[in-house]
UniProtKB/TrEMBL annotation:
Cofactor(s) the protein requires to work: Mg(2+)
GO MF annotations in UniProt: dTDP-4-dehydrorhamnose reductase activity
This enzyme's EC code(s): 1.1.1.133
CDD domains reported for this sequence: dTDP_HR_like_SDR_e
Protein name: dTDP-4-dehydrorhamnose reductase
Organism: Sediminicoccus rosea
Function, as annotated: Catalyzes the reduction of dTDP-6-deoxy-L-lyxo-4-hexulose to yield dTDP-L-rhamnose.
Domain (RmlD-like substrate binding) ranges: 3-292
Length: 296
């Protein structure tokens, strides 16, 4: 197993995999829009046939959480019908599919870290369509691993770290919700973990235990306000902006989609099955801030 198809080229996670996969001896075959577009299934079928992958990591997704509320059909095409087609192609080729999913499949009401066996109950269109994508990927291909991750940030793309640094540079004071808990996960760390999972599959061959849902998120958790404070504390060393960050309640920051209040996820199953544990979110933040300030 050498040739890994990575969808969502240019996105946060695919960009990480472009570095992490070669480090484990894999060839990363990156595909992105418009050559590879879930809304145009023929492009997916053509790319798959041309590249002849030996495993697939599906990083392509509709990730605009609020916009999904206005176009759930569009989000469903990307987040559910896309994985369904990929799973069918993988099953026909007899190869593994790693489908990336989200903490937003949970309602956040458990009050303790979720286990993979806990019930899902998405609160919004994004979470609903991602959950449908999990089911489609599992139903369509016996060799499917679902990796639920959370609060992904990286040196590229749209994410909370880059938003905070940009907004913090223009405003003396920010208001950030302090009652939503989760695991900020650095895309480069998640990419390293996925490459290690694929290396394990290469080493052992596909095992029945690899099929199913796994939590793949950074160690430790925080709330968005805690994350924002850590971002500005870390950025201070690079001469970054230093706004005041006020903690607020969710209702004080009105947005279209409802987010889970507590999306913490237990990571034991991933560690026990694949021997993989992600670093803490604090270590991930350090890594991403350094990448944003090379030589700083
Ligand atoms: N970002 C986050 O905080 C989290 C993400 N996840 C999941 O992790 C995975 C990777 O996310 P991340 O790297 O952050 O995502 P990004 O938003 O950074 O990248 C998504 C990629 O998907 C592509 N894409 C969007 N719609 C389609 C489509 N219809 N057909 C083909 N490609 C499409 C985008 O292309 P283009 O740039 O052209 O639009 C982009 O390349 C996704 O499955 C996401 O749901 C899970 C938890 C948290
Ligand atoms: C920019 C900003 C956001 N917020 C709040 C809004 C929201 O409740 C929370 C997070 O905001 P964002 O919209 O950046 O994050 P959001 O798009 O909800 O992030 C999610 O993306 C999808 C793709 C996932 O899968 C999730 O795991 C999660 O990462 O912070 C503030 O309180 N103050 C601010 O200045």
């Amino acid at each position: 197993m050498r040739r890994i198809l990575v969808t969502g080229q240019g996105g946060q996670l695919a960009t990480g995999l472009a570095e992490s996969l070669p480090a484990q001896g894999f060839e990363a075959l990156l595909v992105g829009q418009p050559d590879f577009e879930f809304d145009k299934p023929a492009t997916v079928i053509t790319a798959f046939a041309a590249l002849k992958p030996e495993a697939v990591v599906n990083c392509a997704a509709w990730t605009a959480v609020d916009a999904a509320e206005d176009d759930e059909a569009g989000a469903f095409r990307a987040n559910a019908l896309g994985p369904a087609l990929l799973a069918k192609l993988c099953a026909e080729a007899g190869i593994p599919l790693i489908q990336i999913s989200t903490d937003y499949v949970y309602d956040g009401l458990k009050g303790a870290p979720y286990l993979e066996s806990d019930l899902t109950n998405p609160l919004g269109a994004y979470g609903r369509t991602k959950l449908a994508g999990e089911w489609a990927a599992l139903a369509g291909n016996p060799m499917t691993s679902i990796l639920r991750t959370a609060w992904v940030f990286s040196p590229v793309g749209k994410n909370f770290v880059r938003t905070m640094l940009a907004v913090g540079a223009t405003r003396p004071e920010l208001r950030v919700v302090a009652d939503q808990h989760g695991h900020p996960t650095a895309a480069p760390d998640l990419a390293d973990a996925i490459a290690a999972i694929l290396a394990r599959i290469r080493e052992t061959g596909w095992q029945p235990a690899y099929r199913g849902v796994f939590h793949a998120r950074a160690e430790q958790s925080t709330h968005w306000h805690g994350f924002a404070e850590a971002i500005f504390a870390g950025a201070a060393r690079f001469g970054g902006p230093q706004p005041r960050v006020l903690p607020i309640a969710t209702h004080e920051y009105p947005v279209k989609a409802v987010r889970p209040a507590d999306g913490r996820m237990d990571g034991t199953k991933l560690t026990e099955t694949f021997g993989v544990t992600l670093p803490s979110w604090q270590a991930g933040l350090e890594r991403v801030l350094k990448a944003l300030h090379p030589g700083g």
